[in-house]
What we know:
alpha+beta, 47% helix, allosteric enzyme, creatine kinase activity, Gln_synth/guanido_kin_cat_dom, protein arginine kinase activity
Amino acid sequence: MSLQHFISEALSPWTKIDGPDSDIVLSSRIRLARNLEEYKFPLLTSTEEAYAVFKHIEDALTQDDFEPVGPLEVLPIEEMRTNEKRVLVEKHLISPHLASHSKHGAVLLDKEESVSIMVNEEDHIRIQCLLPGFQLEKGLKKASDIDDWIEGLLTYAFDEKKGYLTSCPTNVGTGLRASVMMHLPALAMTQQLNRILPAINQLGLVVRGIYGEGSEALGNLFQISNQITLGKSEGDIVEDLRGVVLQLIQQERSARNALLDQSRLQLEDRVHRSFGILAYSRLIESKEATQRLSDVRLGIDLGLIKGLSATILNELMILTQPGFLQQYAGEVLTPDQRDERRATLIRERVQLEKETNE
């Protein structure tokens, strides 16, 4: 495998599999932050020390495959072009921080792209497991197994009272960040999110945009994760998040049913107008494209639009981002050129899907 293998397709193999409640919970993610005992944390390390950390981790994790995951491809960040890094960020395989601020950063990926081990990010090691739909417990089991394998090869920075030591105090303890990506268009349309999101924050959880901290919630996509890692076990953290997500799923389903019962014609008009714009536009900005895709995805999930699969919407959400547009074009594009290519790509992909399903 090579870098091109991971950036040539918008959809990672794991995203093509349906998961539980995948009409609302698009994906589940478990991330574990770890540091090595014998090295300074990345924020304090020199370039030479960062390289030593990278080589130490690379040598340890590539000497033998972890059988449940298979071989890992090592991709050094400094060997990537700017747009190649952007594509990996758009696919959620690396963080924006790793792409822009790391010293001798790297990522180790499995062939399914469901396991991503980031090196020299904010911490020496960040283990990330991605699964389709609502599968937090399964993700935690997978991440914990990988963590145990790595801990058998390397010595972590650990304190008996504080737990795993990390660069940011908010990660000290378990080092666990559990999150789900949720599509909540009906709650947004009925203006219930203004009441619900602040309540979620008061429960020790945090709501972010599609690319995590500091990002905007585009296309009614929200990343919901734990904020506390100290004083709770991994299982408790996941269970607390699971309980809130179950309530959100129920509320979103109720809001969708209410829209169908009370405002069906208006809802049909909205989703079909959005489909028409996607199918015939010659120019479309990224923000509008994600909103229209959200409307159409809702229409598909509610059976209001036929002949399109939800997968194509997932694919277009990524394909129409700036990095992928320029990857396909093979050149740097101006904003106007991106708007034109985005519209063309959506038109052609929607038409292909319609013809395939007729």
